[in-house]
Amino acid sequence: MDHHSIIEDAKAQVYDFHSSDSTGHDYWHVMRVYNNARMIQSQEGGDRFIIEVAALFHDMIDYKLTDDEHAQLDGIKAFLSRRGVGADVIERITHAMQAVSFKGGNNTVAVESVEDAIVQDADRLDALGAVGIARTFIYGGNKRHELYHPDRAAREDLTFEQYSQEDNTMINHFYEKLLRLKNLMHTDTARSVAEERHRFMEMYLEQFYQEWEGKR
Ligand code: ADP
Ligand code: NI
């Protein structure tokens, strides 16, 4: 089967899988990651087909969205194999999917190839900027987190681990994660987009605090 048809089939599969999501992992998140990944690939190289398929399927094995990551992976391997994709390419696709959520802890599949790096950068970009702010509030609303609390205001000196133990407000999530992401990008292309989205988030926070205190 040609690559174009496989990508179209993959989009249909992903649409079905994500149709009932309310945690910020909906189909449109996946499509934005896919588009980010294509944009980064056009500048940085890497195997376009592997990057596109891995981006489309990346959240189907997220532990938050499935009880059985291994069954999901097997399903994706079978999907690709039925369409004539070779075992080595399938291996590189699943590696990139698993490396997306590598945090140095529970997930042991680290970023090793340019394809892994691009898919992870593409996913991280979607946590930034105007869309990233909206996703943070969707996620926090879904978990019934408080928007902001002045006594539990963010401290940039805390480590990621220390943060997770703090009372988590939605605004604190910016300091816990979002404002750190630009320094974690692998590719120059993603880093330059991240820097622009980072500045937007800093402006947003500045306005937020001013409004909170009735100064603007
Ligand atoms: P990913 O899409 O990389 O798997 P996550 O599953 O960690 O990201 O989070 C999905 C979205 O929800 C992201 O935009 C993220 O910033 C946001 N989010 C995750 N944890 C929190 C939190 N504790 N408070 C607010 N937003 C969060
Ligand atoms: Ni994602």
TrEMBL record:
CDD domains, sorted: HDc (cd00077)
Domain HD residues, every copy: 26-128
SMART domains documented for this protein: HDc
Superkingdom of this protein's organism: Bacteria
Classification via PROSITE patterns: HD (PS51831)
Gene3D superfamilies from the UniProt entry: 1.20.58.1910, HD-domain/PDEase-like
Protein name: HD domain-containing protein
Naturally occurring in which organism (per UniProt): Salinicoccus bachuensis
